[in-house]
């Protein structure tokens, strides 16, 4: 699917967007189901969670990768995993670790992009931030803004490849250059 998408809408100005979504479930037997926060439901609910990577360009947007989030309560109970047909090789991974795995596959596949963005759940993760810096990837994952209540602030790579402009990731109105306007609008439409 990723190759199909890149062939049709690929662009060096593309933006990769990581985010998760919840799928509300009522039972207990489906893999990964537990009471956990679901942005879809807007509250803590019995659900499954998927972590997704979106590719956005001026020509379109599409999901290009996904990871199934399996909570520790599941990975710590191999019998439960086997009953739900979860392979023994599947280990616990945080959502930022899943985002990094998807990014690694995307980079290895040669997908053209200029920016990576995600919300503060990813932006405050030092492992993902460090990996992005090591890759010299321009990034805009939000981190909690300690100076204001409940808002997030965009951050960018410390390495010298950024243009100095930052896309706003919330209502704080962070400025951006006209050159990044299209990429920001495309990224916002994926989130």
UniProtKB/TrEMBL annotation:
Biased composition (Polar residues): 160-177
Listed InterPro entries: IS701-like, IS701-like_DDE_dom
Positions with biased composition (Basic and acidic residues): 131-148
PANTHER family linked to this entry: TRANSPOSASE
Region: Disordered, residue numbers: 127-191
Designated name of the protein: Transposase IS701-like DDE domain-containing protein
Species, as recorded: Micromonospora endophytica
Transposase IS701-like DDE domain residues: 4-134
